[in-house]
Every structure is written in C-alpha cells, then in structure tokens.
Specification:
The protein has 79 residues and is mainly β. It is built from no helices and 7 strands. Strands 1-3-5-7 form a 4-stranded parallel sheet, with no helix packed on it. The chain is globular. Its main location: other.
Length: 79
C-alpha cells in the first residue's frame, strides 16, 4: 500500500473553505494549498500537529487566527 506523504494543490484556483475533515494523517507531512481562492477561517481539523512538517496556506483569502494545533509546524507560509 502506498502512502501519500506530500500533497501540492497550489495554484489550482481552489475556492470555498477548507473542509472540516481530518487532514493530519500519519503519512501526510507536506500540504500546500497556496495561491488559490480559499476563504473563511482555518478549521481546527488538523488532528495531530506533529504529523505536518510543512503547511502553506499563503495567498488565499483566509481570515482569523491559526488553530493552536498548527503552531509547531516547521514552516507555515503566510501572506
């Protein structure tokens, strides 16, 4: 069975909000959703902050504070 360790969906014109579903799986270490049209608040859906090594949500229309579960990621992109 293959494990998805990196997911790059940047610059794909994604719109709407980030879905309220568990995204912090043990295999997914890098998530890039930058340069899209995502809007709204960043949901507190990242179930284990230790699983992400990189999360980039920059250049979107997100608002509000980042959930506390994200604060230990090595790199959090923001603009």
């Amino acid at each position: 069975m293959s494990v998805l360790s990196s997911l790059y969906l940047n610059s794909n014109h994604l719109s709407g909000g980030i879905p309220a579903m568990p995204l912090g799986s043990k295999g997914l270490g890098i998530l890039n959703l930058s340069k899209s049209m995502l809007e709204g608040k960043i949901p507190d859906v990242f179930t284990s902050r230790s699983y992400f090594t990189s999360l980039d949500l920059s250049f979107n229309k997100l608002q509000g504070e980042a959930p506390k579960t994200l604060l230990t990621a090595e790199y959090i992109g923001g603009a």
